[in-house]
Design goal:
By secondary structure, the chain is mainly α. It contains 5 helices and 2 strands; from the N terminus they run H-H-H-H-H-E-E. 8% of the residues are buried.
């Protein structure tokens, strides 16, 4: 006997969008809809809601973060500048060798190798 086709209700669509926005894993969302549907069925019939739920949530959080940053919240401003503006913290250390020539090391996270000009006296 053929399985009946799945047709989502408007209420299920709203529920899936909300859960996706709250960060509920897809496996858990599929377990809740009609007391359990396959994840493939969830992805097939609720693709729009899964995407829009996450997008709406990210937009709301981004809006709140932006408002806090422009209102003077230093932590929010620092986070925004690093993630949205590409700013980063760098360290610069200058060490002078025996010949009084500077050896410059920039940003400890940088993968490039510093020149090694050591003399064996």
């Amino acid at each position: 006997m053929a399985r009946p086709s799945f047709t989502p209700t408007d209420e299920e669509r709203k529920q899936v969008e909300a859960m996706s926005g709250f960060g509920v894993p897809f496996a858990h969302i599929s377990a809740i809809i009609r007391e359990g549907i396959d994840e493939d069925t969830l992805n097939k019939h609720f693709k729009k809601e899964l995407i829009q739920g996450k997008a709406k949530a990210n937009s709301k959080v981004g809006q709140t973060l932006f408002q806090k940053a422009v209102a003077g919240d230093t932590s929010a401003a620092i986070w925004w500048s690093k993630t949205q503006m590409g700013w980063r913290e760098t360290r610069e250390v200058e060490i002078v060798d025996k010949r009084s020539e500077p050896i410059l090391f920039t940003d400890a996270d940088d993968d490039t190798d510093a020149d090694d000009d050591t003399d064996a006296d």
